[in-house]
Amino acid sequence: MSSEVTTECLVIGAGPAGLQASYLLHRAGRDHLVLESGQAAGTFFTRFPRHRQLISINKVYTGWDDPELNLRVDWNSLLSDDPELLFTGYTPRYFPTADDMVRYLGDFAVKNDLPVRYDTRVVSVTRPDDFVVRDQHGGTYRAKRIIVATGVSQPYVPDIDGVEHAEHYYDVSVDPQDFTNKRVLIIGRGNSAFETADALMETTSVIHVAGPGSLKLAWQTHFVGHLRAVNNNFLDTYQLKSQNALLDGHIKGIRRDGDAYLVKVSFQRVNEVIKEIRYDRVILATGFRFDASIFAPECRPQLTIKSRFPDQTAAWESVNVPDLFFAGTITQMRDFKKSTSGFIHGFRYGVRALHRIAEQRYHGVDWPSRSVEPAADAVTEAIIERVNRTSALWQMFGFLADVVLTGKDGSVRYLEEVPVAHLHEAVARGEFGDVESYLTVTLEYGEDHDKVNPFDITAGRTSQDDTSGLDGRYLHPVVRRFRAGELVDEHHVTENLENEWDSETVHRTPLREYLR
Ligand SMILES: Cc1cc2nc3c(=O)[nH]c(=O)nc-3n(C[C@H](O)[C@H](O)[C@H](O)COP(=O)(O)OP(=O)(O)OC[C@H]3O[C@@H](n4cnc5c(N)ncnc54)[C@H](O)[C@@H]3O)c2cc1C
């Protein structure tokens, strides 16, 4: 195939992010094309997670009939106007299988008639003037801008002496019988590591899971990439003395010793004492990275975080290659290990915000907004209505904000789901018009939210009816006022166990007073 295809926007990758971007471009009537190396949408999920269970929850029964609220506990659906295209309709399983995801993404692409070319692997991206992209068949594509949604397609291999002796989560056998009565070391402390340990617990003699730093639990840190309860059975087998153990330290070296391996571990708890431990199998579960190798030097994106992710501006644009944007899990460098950009239930909103940024920049289409009466009552009601419904601010806590813009003419407009960092820059550039001042509305966990054991009743808590006190550990709305990009003041709406901020005395009145 040699003819050149020209389009306004190329999307590389038909995973959840690429499909979300294509859906929004399609709905806006924008000329674009999606190039996917796999034979189907969601190719990543045909292989990963290796043990086939997703950790993104699929809560089918909520007691709510509000689709926006339901998205708070549906972590797999892409954003669309079609209620038939909700992931919750695909399986009742709370933790669905990766195969369910492949089925869902395939339907999402077909039912929306998205312009995806499968079996089309991008092998090079150059930029003589426009971007010129080549695929493995010699096909050529030309575009003014590119959205890269290629995910983390390569294993991340840490710099350890003898690391070549280790197998990788990426392609290690998932047949527990292959590890019968074996001593296994798993290097890494993310969910892939514990998912693997979980799968091997019945057949192995010993499993050690090793990594530096204190183990972080998602229910404590509120970061869903930290160890999830669904993957932590292993901790029982460690603390209840069933031969398995966590090793808190660095792996210094791996060397062959007959049919086995001797692994040098430096233990952080005991002054880095180094011990050599014998294992039959060593598995690396040390994460994944973005693949920048397809980009020619003139348009190769700068990388960040141990070169694992493309470095991006607040508008998800490459910091060094204009018109090159990123979508999906590779945008997690923007809120690394804090909010949810690494996961579908986070980046689906990121892709929508990126679409609105591109509509503004390339098509002069303003960010959607509605007018609000310029009065404290009306603004209070607008904010209260949103914080009690929004799934975007709920999932992307502290990262996406609703915005109340007050113009120099006194008019007030309400915008939804603007990335906080982008907002400040865009207001300064005049992209939101003549702004006298603006409010950001976010949902946030407060200071030390990850320091306290939430199950320890001696930790106590401030009464949720106490307007003077705020137990910031819990997710709550925060309203901040800015003038000329400077923070003027802020108001924290008292947290509430049910996350319903609609009490007149506890929530509305204090907010109204703040807004007067
Ligand atoms: C082990 C693991 C488990 C995870 N589990 C979950 C989970 O349960 N729930 C969740 O929400 N998130 C999960 N994630 C995080 C993340 O959501 C997924 O990584 C998700 O797949 C990201 O979507 P994406 O669209 O950004 O990238 P991907 O789904 O990886 O899609 C990228 C697409 O680009 C294609 N592609 C790559 N390179 C090229 C190229 N050169 N040319 C053309 N096409 C190309 C790929 O074939 C792929 O289809 C997990 C991540 C990992 C690593």
UniProtKB/TrEMBL annotation:
<protein>
    <submittedName>
        <fullName>Pyridine nucleotide-disulfide oxidoreductase</fullName>
    </submittedName>
</protein>
<dbReference type="InterPro" id="IPR036188">
    <property type="entry name" value="FAD/NAD-bd_sf"/>
</dbReference>
<dbReference type="Pfam" id="PF13738">
    <property type="entry name" value="Pyr_redox_3"/>
</dbReference>
<dbReference type="InterPro" id="IPR050982">
    <property type="entry name" value="Auxin_biosynth/cation_transpt"/>
</dbReference>
<keyword id="KW-0560">Oxidoreductase</keyword>
